[in-house]
Design brief:
Blueprint lengths: L2 E5 L2 E4 L4 E8 L5 E9 L6 E7 L4 E3 L7 E6 L4 E6 L8 E9 L5 E4 L3 E6 L1
Parallel strand pairs: 2-11
Antiparallel strand pairs: 1-3, 3-8, 4-5, 4-9, 5-6, 7-8, 9-10, 9-11
């Protein structure tokens, strides 16, 4: 069973920065993709950014140019550097990993709150 431990959320003023981390453990299978989603109150969960094992990245249009996703394959850890934060970035951020088990499976972290004040 894969465990995901997230850290780095908090309260920041608009224009500030935060860095989220998510460490995966409990699997010897390859982690094909890692990513971050977020869910604001009253809204559906949405994709923020993803990164493959080959370090290909994809971002939501709303965060392009402000957020950077990266990963350390040796540590099975994914990061999300968030700069120029806006109040509309306020949400619970969830880490997600896609593991090449048999069958392949998605795992989710418990979520970390990010609050951006205006």
């Amino acid at each position: 069973q894969v465990q995901l431990v997230e850290s780095g959320g908090g309260l920041v003023q608009a224009g500030g920065s935060l860095r989220l981390s998510c460490a995966a453990s409990g699997t010897f299978f390859p982690i094909l993709a890692m990513g971050w989603h977020r869910q604001a109150p009253g809204k559906q969960r949405e994709l923020v950014a993803t990164i493959t094992s080959e370090l290909n990245t994809d971002y939501a249009d709303s965060v392009k140019g402000r957020f950077t996703i990266s990963r350390d394959n040796a540590k099975n850890t994914v990061y999300l550097q968030m700069n120029s934060l806006k109040p509309e970035d306020t949400a619970v951020y969830y880490c997600n990993v896609y593991v090449l088990e048999r069958p392949p499976a998605n795992y989710w972290g418990q979520g970390t709150q990010v609050t951006v004040s205006s």
